[in-house]
Amino acid sequence: MKSPHLFWAPHAWVAGQWQQGVCLEADAHGHWAHITPGIAQAPAHATVLHGPVLPGMVNAHSHAFQRAFAGLSERRASDADDFWSWRDRMYGVALRITPAQMRAVAAQLYVEMLQGGYTQACEFHYLHHSESGTHYPDPAAMAWAVADGAADAGLGLTLLPVLYERAGFTQPHLRDDQRRFAGTPGFIADLQKSISRSYRKLVNAGVSIHSLRAAAPASIAALLERVIDTDMPIHIHIAEQMQEVRDCLAHTGKRPIEWLCDALPLDARWQLVHATHTKPEEIEAVAASGAGIVICPSTEGNLGDGFADLSHWLECEVPMAIGSDSHVCRQWNEELRWLEYGQRMLLQKRNVAAHPAGNQPATAARLFEATLAAGGQAAGQKHWGLTVGARADLLVLNPQASGLLGVPTSHTLDAFVFACDTPAIRDVFVAGRQVIAQGRHAQQGEIAAGFVEALQVLSQGAPSTH
User: Has 274 been annotated as catalytic?
Assistant: First the structure.
Protein backbone atom coordinates (compact mmCIF):
# COMPACT_ATOMS: atom_id res chain seq x y z
CA MET A 1 0.00 0.00 0.00
CA LYS A 2 1.30 3.45 -0.95
CA SER A 3 2.06 5.83 1.90
CA PRO A 4 0.32 9.21 1.50
CA HIS A 5 3.30 10.85 3.15
CA LEU A 6 6.30 9.34 1.33
CA PHE A 7 7.46 10.50 -2.10
CA TRP A 8 10.38 9.52 -4.30
CA ALA A 9 11.82 11.70 -7.06
CA PRO A 10 14.40 10.71 -9.67
CA HIS A 11 15.93 14.17 -9.18
CA ALA A 12 15.09 16.95 -6.74
CA TRP A 13 16.48 20.39 -5.97
CA VAL A 14 17.85 19.93 -2.44
CA ALA A 15 20.38 22.19 -0.68
CA GLY A 16 20.85 24.36 -3.75
CA GLN A 17 21.54 21.65 -6.32
CA TRP A 18 20.05 18.72 -8.20
CA GLN A 19 20.36 15.48 -6.26
CA GLN A 20 19.51 11.97 -7.45
CA GLY A 21 17.05 9.49 -6.01
CA VAL A 22 15.46 11.66 -3.32
CA CYS A 23 12.97 10.34 -0.75
CA LEU A 24 10.77 13.01 0.79
CA GLU A 25 8.67 12.13 3.83
CA ALA A 26 5.99 14.43 5.20
CA ASP A 27 4.59 14.26 8.71
CA ALA A 28 0.92 14.14 9.60
CA HIS A 29 0.82 17.95 9.78
CA GLY A 30 2.01 18.43 6.21
CA HIS A 31 5.64 19.35 6.87
CA TRP A 32 8.82 17.66 5.70
CA ALA A 33 10.07 15.22 8.35
CA HIS A 34 12.85 13.51 6.39
CA ILE A 35 14.57 14.26 3.07
CA THR A 36 17.06 11.63 1.94
CA PRO A 37 19.00 11.81 -1.34
CA GLY A 38 20.86 8.88 -2.88
CA ILE A 39 18.03 6.32 -2.83
CA ALA A 40 18.51 4.62 -6.19
CA GLN A 41 15.08 2.98 -6.38
CA ALA A 42 11.72 4.10 -5.09
CA PRO A 43 10.58 2.28 -1.93
CA ALA A 44 7.61 0.01 -2.65
CA HIS A 45 5.25 2.15 -0.56
CA ALA A 46 6.38 5.55 -1.93
CA THR A 47 4.50 7.75 -4.41
CA VAL A 48 6.77 8.11 -7.44
CA LEU A 49 7.03 11.65 -8.82
CA HIS A 50 7.40 11.47 -12.60
CA GLY A 51 9.84 14.27 -13.28
CA PRO A 52 12.42 16.59 -11.73
CA VAL A 53 11.16 18.08 -8.47
CA LEU A 54 11.48 21.68 -7.32
CA PRO A 55 10.24 23.33 -4.13
CA GLY A 56 7.19 25.57 -4.43
CA MET A 57 7.80 29.30 -4.73
CA VAL A 58 6.28 32.13 -2.67
CA ASN A 59 4.53 34.86 -4.62
CA ALA A 60 5.55 37.65 -2.26
CA HIS A 61 3.32 40.43 -3.61
CA SER A 62 -0.25 40.02 -4.84
CA HIS A 63 -3.33 42.21 -5.31
CA ALA A 64 -5.85 39.46 -6.09
CA PHE A 65 -8.65 41.73 -7.29
CA GLN A 66 -6.39 43.13 -10.02
CA ARG A 67 -6.57 39.76 -11.80
CA ALA A 68 -9.99 41.00 -12.97
CA PHE A 69 -8.20 43.88 -14.72
CA ALA A 70 -5.30 42.01 -16.36
CA GLY A 71 -5.20 42.59 -20.11
CA LEU A 72 -7.78 45.38 -20.01
CA SER A 73 -5.47 48.38 -19.77
CA GLU A 74 -3.30 47.94 -22.86
CA ARG A 75 -4.74 50.86 -24.83
CA ARG A 76 -4.51 54.60 -24.34
CA ALA A 77 -6.72 57.49 -25.37
CA SER A 78 -4.30 60.38 -24.73
CA ASP A 79 -0.72 61.34 -25.49
CA ALA A 80 0.59 59.96 -22.20
CA ASP A 81 0.01 56.80 -20.19
CA ASP A 82 1.87 55.76 -17.03
CA PHE A 83 1.38 54.16 -13.64
CA TRP A 84 -0.88 56.96 -12.43
CA SER A 85 -3.31 56.79 -15.37
CA TRP A 86 -3.33 52.98 -15.09
CA ARG A 87 -4.12 53.33 -11.39
CA ASP A 88 -7.15 55.52 -12.04
CA ARG A 89 -8.58 52.94 -14.45
CA MET A 90 -7.83 50.11 -12.01
CA TYR A 91 -9.89 51.90 -9.34
CA GLY A 92 -12.96 51.26 -11.48
CA VAL A 93 -12.69 47.56 -10.69
CA ALA A 94 -11.83 48.21 -7.05
CA LEU A 95 -14.99 50.26 -6.58
CA ARG A 96 -17.35 47.58 -7.93
CA ILE A 97 -16.09 44.17 -6.81
CA THR A 98 -18.19 42.36 -4.18
CA PRO A 99 -17.02 39.74 -1.67
CA ALA A 100 -18.52 36.94 -3.80
CA GLN A 101 -16.79 38.26 -6.90
CA MET A 102 -13.56 38.67 -4.95
CA ARG A 103 -13.70 35.00 -3.96
CA ALA A 104 -14.31 33.94 -7.56
CA VAL A 105 -11.48 36.11 -8.92
CA ALA A 106 -9.08 35.02 -6.18
CA ALA A 107 -9.85 31.33 -6.69
CA GLN A 108 -9.11 31.58 -10.42
CA LEU A 109 -5.94 33.56 -9.78
CA TYR A 110 -4.70 31.13 -7.18
CA VAL A 111 -5.32 28.11 -9.43
CA GLU A 112 -3.24 29.89 -12.08
CA MET A 113 -0.53 30.58 -9.51
CA LEU A 114 -0.39 26.90 -8.60
CA GLN A 115 -0.09 26.01 -12.27
CA GLY A 116 2.71 28.58 -12.51
CA GLY A 117 4.68 27.10 -9.62
CA TYR A 118 3.62 29.26 -6.68
CA THR A 119 2.34 27.46 -3.56
CA GLN A 120 2.03 30.49 -1.24
CA ALA A 121 0.91 34.07 -1.91
CA CYS A 122 1.40 37.22 0.15
CA GLU A 123 -1.82 39.15 -0.35
CA PHE A 124 -1.28 42.92 0.04
CA HIS A 125 -4.90 43.47 0.99
CA TYR A 126 -6.32 47.00 1.02
CA LEU A 127 -9.82 46.47 -0.35
CA HIS A 128 -11.51 46.49 3.06
CA HIS A 129 -14.94 48.11 2.85
CA SER A 130 -18.22 48.04 0.97
CA GLU A 131 -18.77 49.83 -2.34
CA SER A 132 -20.00 52.90 -0.45
CA GLY A 133 -16.95 52.94 1.80
CA THR A 134 -18.80 51.82 4.93
CA HIS A 135 -17.69 48.86 7.04
CA TYR A 136 -19.22 45.48 6.33
CA PRO A 137 -21.06 43.96 9.35
CA ASP A 138 -17.96 41.78 9.61
CA PRO A 139 -15.05 44.17 8.94
CA ALA A 140 -12.99 41.22 7.68
CA ALA A 141 -15.53 40.22 5.00
CA MET A 142 -13.25 40.99 2.05
CA ALA A 143 -10.29 39.31 3.74
CA TRP A 144 -12.37 36.17 4.25
CA ALA A 145 -13.38 36.28 0.58
CA VAL A 146 -9.71 36.22 -0.43
CA ALA A 147 -8.99 33.43 2.06
CA ASP A 148 -11.96 31.43 0.77
CA GLY A 149 -10.60 31.78 -2.77
CA ALA A 150 -7.24 30.45 -1.60
CA ALA A 151 -8.97 27.53 0.14
CA ASP A 152 -10.94 26.75 -3.04
CA ALA A 153 -7.65 26.53 -4.91
CA GLY A 154 -5.59 24.88 -2.15
CA LEU A 155 -2.92 27.59 -2.08
CA GLY A 156 -1.18 28.82 1.07
CA LEU A 157 -1.91 32.45 1.95
CA THR A 158 -0.26 35.22 3.93
CA LEU A 159 -2.86 37.97 4.37
CA LEU A 160 -1.39 41.44 4.84
CA PRO A 161 -4.07 44.03 5.70
CA VAL A 162 -2.87 47.44 4.53
CA LEU A 163 -2.74 50.79 6.29
CA TYR A 164 -4.02 53.29 3.71
CA GLU A 165 -5.30 56.65 4.97
CA ARG A 166 -4.48 59.50 2.57
CA ALA A 167 -4.18 60.24 -1.14
CA GLY A 168 -0.70 61.79 -1.02
CA PHE A 169 1.96 63.51 1.07
CA THR A 170 0.05 66.81 1.09
CA GLN A 171 -3.47 65.37 1.11
CA PRO A 172 -4.79 64.48 4.58
CA HIS A 173 -7.64 62.29 3.31
CA LEU A 174 -8.35 59.67 0.68
CA ARG A 175 -9.94 60.51 -2.64
CA ASP A 176 -13.53 59.40 -3.04
CA ASP A 177 -12.46 56.63 -5.45
CA GLN A 178 -10.17 55.29 -2.68
CA ARG A 179 -12.95 55.07 -0.08
CA ARG A 180 -12.87 51.27 0.12
CA PHE A 181 -9.22 51.32 1.21
CA ALA A 182 -9.51 53.37 4.41
CA GLY A 183 -7.94 51.95 7.53
CA THR A 184 -6.62 53.30 10.81
CA PRO A 185 -3.70 51.67 12.66
CA GLY A 186 -6.18 50.15 15.11
CA PHE A 187 -8.39 48.77 12.35
CA ILE A 188 -5.42 47.13 10.60
CA ALA A 189 -4.04 45.64 13.82
CA ASP A 190 -7.46 44.26 14.75
CA LEU A 191 -7.91 42.79 11.26
CA GLN A 192 -4.53 41.07 11.49
CA LYS A 193 -5.49 39.59 14.86
CA SER A 194 -8.84 38.36 13.53
CA ILE A 195 -7.13 36.57 10.67
CA SER A 196 -4.45 35.04 12.89
CA ARG A 197 -6.96 33.87 15.49
CA SER A 198 -9.19 32.26 12.89
CA TYR A 199 -6.64 29.42 12.61
CA ARG A 200 -7.63 28.79 9.02
CA LYS A 201 -5.64 26.05 7.36
CA LEU A 202 -2.67 27.32 5.33
CA VAL A 203 -3.38 30.95 6.33
CA ASN A 204 -1.18 33.31 8.35
CA ALA A 205 -1.14 37.10 8.62
CA GLY A 206 1.08 40.14 8.88
CA VAL A 207 0.52 43.83 8.18
CA SER A 208 1.32 46.28 5.40
CA ILE A 209 1.74 50.00 4.92
CA HIS A 210 0.60 51.01 1.47
CA SER A 211 3.37 53.58 0.94
CA LEU A 212 4.91 56.63 2.54
CA ARG A 213 2.62 58.85 0.49
CA ALA A 214 -0.48 56.96 1.73
CA ALA A 215 0.25 56.79 5.47
CA ALA A 216 1.44 59.57 7.78
CA PRO A 217 4.55 58.94 9.94
CA ALA A 218 2.48 59.11 13.14
CA SER A 219 0.10 56.45 11.84
CA ILE A 220 2.96 54.21 10.75
CA ALA A 221 4.47 54.54 14.24
CA ALA A 222 1.11 53.75 15.85
CA LEU A 223 0.76 50.58 13.79
CA LEU A 224 4.31 49.47 14.57
CA GLU A 225 3.66 49.94 18.30
CA ARG A 226 0.91 47.34 18.01
CA VAL A 227 3.16 44.74 16.34
CA ILE A 228 6.52 45.54 17.91
CA ASP A 229 6.71 42.32 19.93
CA THR A 230 5.72 39.99 17.09
CA ASP A 231 7.62 38.27 14.31
CA MET A 232 4.94 38.90 11.67
CA PRO A 233 5.99 40.16 8.22
CA ILE A 234 5.63 43.90 7.50
CA HIS A 235 5.38 44.96 3.85
CA ILE A 236 5.44 48.39 2.19
CA HIS A 237 5.40 49.73 -1.38
CA ILE A 238 8.49 51.89 -1.77
CA ALA A 239 10.25 53.89 -4.54
CA GLU A 240 8.22 52.31 -7.34
CA GLN A 241 7.93 55.44 -9.51
CA MET A 242 10.12 58.51 -9.91
CA GLN A 243 7.14 60.76 -9.16
CA GLU A 244 6.93 59.13 -5.74
CA VAL A 245 10.64 59.82 -5.21
CA ARG A 246 10.25 63.46 -6.22
CA ASP A 247 7.20 63.94 -4.02
CA CYS A 248 8.95 62.37 -1.04
CA LEU A 249 12.00 64.60 -1.55
CA ALA A 250 9.78 67.67 -1.75
CA HIS A 251 7.84 66.75 1.38
CA THR A 252 10.51 65.23 3.64
CA GLY A 253 13.82 66.29 2.13
CA LYS A 254 14.74 62.62 1.69
CA ARG A 255 14.20 59.88 -0.87
CA PRO A 256 11.67 57.16 0.17
CA ILE A 257 14.12 54.40 1.08
CA GLU A 258 16.46 56.92 2.66
CA TRP A 259 13.61 58.20 4.85
CA LEU A 260 12.47 54.68 5.71
CA CYS A 261 15.93 53.56 6.82
CA ASP A 262 16.53 56.73 8.85
CA ALA A 263 13.12 56.99 10.51
CA LEU A 264 12.03 53.42 11.25
CA PRO A 265 13.58 50.40 13.01
CA LEU A 266 13.80 48.12 9.99
CA ASP A 267 14.63 44.47 10.57
CA ALA A 268 14.17 41.09 8.92
CA ARG A 269 10.38 41.33 9.17
CA TRP A 270 10.30 44.22 6.68
CA GLN A 271 9.75 43.69 2.97
CA LEU A 272 10.29 46.66 0.65
CA VAL A 273 8.12 46.06 -2.39
CA HIS A 274 9.48 47.23 -5.77
CA ALA A 275 12.44 49.30 -4.42
CA THR A 276 13.03 50.27 -8.05
CA HIS A 277 14.59 53.72 -7.80
CA THR A 278 17.56 53.57 -5.45
CA LYS A 279 21.00 54.93 -4.79
CA PRO A 280 23.84 52.56 -3.78
CA GLU A 281 23.91 53.95 -0.24
CA GLU A 282 20.20 53.20 0.15
CA ILE A 283 20.75 49.57 -0.85
CA GLU A 284 23.61 49.34 1.63
CA ALA A 285 21.41 50.79 4.38
CA VAL A 286 18.70 48.20 3.67
CA ALA A 287 21.35 45.46 3.76
CA ALA A 288 22.58 46.67 7.15
CA SER A 289 19.02 46.61 8.52
CA GLY A 290 18.33 42.97 7.58
CA ALA A 291 15.18 43.90 5.64
CA GLY A 292 14.29 42.26 2.33
CA ILE A 293 12.91 43.47 -0.98
CA VAL A 294 10.21 42.15 -3.32
CA ILE A 295 10.71 42.74 -7.05
CA CYS A 296 7.76 42.32 -9.43
CA PRO A 297 9.33 42.29 -12.92
CA SER A 298 6.26 41.69 -15.08
CA THR A 299 4.19 44.39 -13.38
CA GLU A 300 7.08 46.84 -13.22
CA GLY A 301 7.57 46.30 -16.94
CA ASN A 302 3.86 46.53 -17.69
CA LEU A 303 3.55 49.83 -15.79
CA GLY A 304 6.78 51.32 -17.09
CA ASP A 305 8.22 51.69 -13.58
CA GLY A 306 11.89 51.18 -14.43
CA PHE A 307 14.70 48.76 -13.60
CA ALA A 308 15.89 47.77 -10.15
CA ASP A 309 19.63 47.81 -9.47
CA LEU A 310 19.75 44.01 -9.43
CA SER A 311 23.54 43.70 -9.35
CA HIS A 312 23.94 45.86 -6.26
CA TRP A 313 21.03 44.23 -4.41
CA LEU A 314 22.66 40.84 -5.05
CA GLU A 315 26.13 42.10 -4.21
CA CYS A 316 24.87 43.39 -0.86
CA GLU A 317 23.10 40.06 -0.23
CA VAL A 318 19.75 41.67 0.51
CA PRO A 319 16.98 39.02 0.67
CA MET A 320 15.12 39.34 -2.64
CA ALA A 321 11.72 37.75 -3.23
CA ILE A 322 9.51 38.03 -6.32
CA GLY A 323 5.83 38.84 -6.75
CA SER A 324 3.30 38.97 -9.55
CA ASP A 325 1.57 42.10 -8.18
CA SER A 326 -1.08 43.00 -10.84
CA HIS A 327 -1.03 39.47 -12.32
CA VAL A 328 -0.29 40.14 -15.96
CA CYS A 329 1.95 37.09 -15.41
CA ARG A 330 1.32 34.22 -13.00
CA GLN A 331 4.45 32.06 -13.49
CA TRP A 332 7.57 32.53 -11.43
CA ASN A 333 9.94 31.24 -14.11
CA GLU A 334 8.81 34.07 -16.38
CA GLU A 335 9.26 36.61 -13.58
CA LEU A 336 12.87 35.44 -13.14
CA ARG A 337 13.40 35.49 -16.90
CA TRP A 338 12.29 39.11 -17.18
CA LEU A 339 14.19 40.11 -14.08
CA GLU A 340 17.36 38.95 -15.83
CA TYR A 341 16.37 40.07 -19.35
CA GLY A 342 15.64 43.60 -18.16
CA GLN A 343 19.17 43.83 -16.81
CA ARG A 344 20.63 42.38 -20.02
CA MET A 345 18.89 45.02 -22.14
CA LEU A 346 19.78 47.80 -19.72
CA LEU A 347 23.46 46.86 -19.37
CA GLN A 348 23.98 45.16 -22.75
CA LYS A 349 25.46 42.12 -21.03
CA ARG A 350 24.45 38.48 -20.58
CA ASN A 351 24.03 36.39 -17.41
CA VAL A 352 24.04 39.49 -15.24
CA ALA A 353 22.89 37.66 -12.11
CA ALA A 354 25.46 34.88 -12.39
CA HIS A 355 28.40 35.07 -9.97
CA PRO A 356 31.23 32.72 -11.00
CA ALA A 357 33.62 34.17 -8.42
CA GLY A 358 31.15 33.19 -5.72
CA ASN A 359 30.74 29.67 -7.14
CA GLN A 360 27.37 30.64 -8.67
CA PRO A 361 27.94 30.45 -12.44
CA ALA A 362 24.29 29.62 -13.29
CA THR A 363 21.99 32.64 -13.58
CA ALA A 364 18.77 30.70 -13.02
CA ALA A 365 20.13 28.87 -9.98
CA ARG A 366 21.35 32.05 -8.31
CA LEU A 367 18.06 33.85 -8.86
CA PHE A 368 16.00 30.82 -7.85
CA GLU A 369 17.92 30.21 -4.64
CA ALA A 370 17.78 33.88 -3.69
CA THR A 371 14.06 34.29 -4.29
CA LEU A 372 13.18 30.91 -2.78
CA ALA A 373 14.73 31.74 0.60
CA ALA A 374 13.58 35.35 0.62
CA GLY A 375 10.05 34.35 -0.32
CA GLY A 376 9.74 32.20 2.78
CA GLN A 377 10.92 35.12 4.90
CA ALA A 378 8.45 37.48 3.20
CA ALA A 379 5.58 35.09 3.96
CA GLY A 380 6.50 34.68 7.62
CA GLN A 381 7.53 31.05 7.11
CA LYS A 382 10.43 30.00 9.33
CA HIS A 383 11.39 27.19 6.95
CA TRP A 384 10.80 27.01 3.22
CA GLY A 385 11.82 24.67 0.40
CA LEU A 386 12.75 21.02 0.30
CA THR A 387 14.13 21.07 3.81
CA VAL A 388 13.13 19.45 7.08
CA GLY A 389 10.56 21.52 8.95
CA ALA A 390 9.24 23.33 5.88
CA ARG A 391 5.71 22.81 4.62
CA ALA A 392 5.57 19.80 2.29
CA ASP A 393 5.17 21.70 -0.98
CA LEU A 394 6.69 20.59 -4.25
CA LEU A 395 6.51 20.99 -8.02
CA VAL A 396 7.02 18.21 -10.53
CA LEU A 397 8.34 19.34 -13.91
CA ASN A 398 7.30 17.59 -17.12
CA PRO A 399 10.54 16.40 -18.77
CA GLN A 400 8.65 16.05 -22.07
CA ALA A 401 7.58 19.71 -22.10
CA SER A 402 8.78 22.02 -24.82
CA GLY A 403 12.00 23.59 -23.61
CA LEU A 404 12.85 20.71 -21.26
CA LEU A 405 12.81 17.83 -23.76
CA GLY A 406 16.26 16.26 -23.98
CA VAL A 407 17.85 18.76 -21.57
CA PRO A 408 20.31 17.15 -19.12
CA THR A 409 19.31 17.33 -15.47
CA SER A 410 22.22 19.66 -14.72
CA HIS A 411 20.61 22.32 -16.95
CA THR A 412 16.94 21.69 -16.18
CA LEU A 413 16.52 24.81 -14.05
CA ASP A 414 18.30 26.94 -16.67
CA ALA A 415 15.97 25.63 -19.37
CA PHE A 416 12.86 26.02 -17.22
CA VAL A 417 13.60 29.70 -16.63
CA PHE A 418 15.02 30.66 -20.03
CA ALA A 419 13.73 28.20 -22.64
CA CYS A 420 10.16 27.28 -21.70
CA ASP A 421 7.39 29.21 -23.43
CA THR A 422 4.62 26.69 -22.71
CA PRO A 423 3.50 25.21 -19.34
CA ALA A 424 6.10 22.82 -17.98
CA ILE A 425 4.80 22.06 -14.48
CA ARG A 426 3.10 18.66 -14.34
CA ASP A 427 2.04 18.23 -10.71
CA VAL A 428 1.87 20.45 -7.62
CA PHE A 429 1.58 19.45 -3.96
CA VAL A 430 0.79 21.77 -1.04
CA ALA A 431 1.25 20.50 2.53
CA GLY A 432 1.62 17.01 1.10
CA ARG A 433 -1.67 17.12 -0.81
CA GLN A 434 -1.83 17.10 -4.60
CA VAL A 435 -3.62 20.17 -5.97
CA ILE A 436 -2.48 20.08 -9.62
CA ALA A 437 -2.34 16.80 -11.54
CA GLN A 438 -0.93 16.73 -15.08
CA GLY A 439 -1.36 20.48 -15.30
CA ARG A 440 -4.98 20.66 -14.16
CA HIS A 441 -6.83 21.50 -10.97
CA ALA A 442 -9.67 19.19 -9.95
CA GLN A 443 -12.14 22.12 -9.75
CA GLN A 444 -10.65 24.05 -12.65
CA GLY A 445 -13.81 24.15 -14.77
CA GLU A 446 -16.08 25.20 -11.91
CA ILE A 447 -13.66 27.87 -10.70
CA ALA A 448 -13.15 29.23 -14.22
CA ALA A 449 -16.92 29.48 -14.74
CA GLY A 450 -17.28 31.50 -11.54
CA PHE A 451 -14.46 33.78 -12.63
CA VAL A 452 -16.02 34.43 -16.04
CA GLU A 453 -19.37 35.20 -14.44
CA ALA A 454 -17.73 37.68 -12.05
CA LEU A 455 -15.89 39.42 -14.91
CA GLN A 456 -19.05 39.71 -16.97
CA VAL A 457 -20.79 41.53 -14.14
CA LEU A 458 -17.75 43.68 -13.31
CA SER A 459 -17.35 44.74 -16.94
CA GLN A 460 -20.85 46.25 -17.07
CA GLY A 461 -20.53 49.99 -16.91
CA ALA A 462 -16.73 49.81 -16.73
CA PRO A 463 -14.90 52.68 -18.45
CA SER A 464 -13.23 51.61 -21.69
CA THR A 465 -10.05 52.85 -23.32
CA HIS A 466 -10.31 52.94 -27.12
Answer: yes
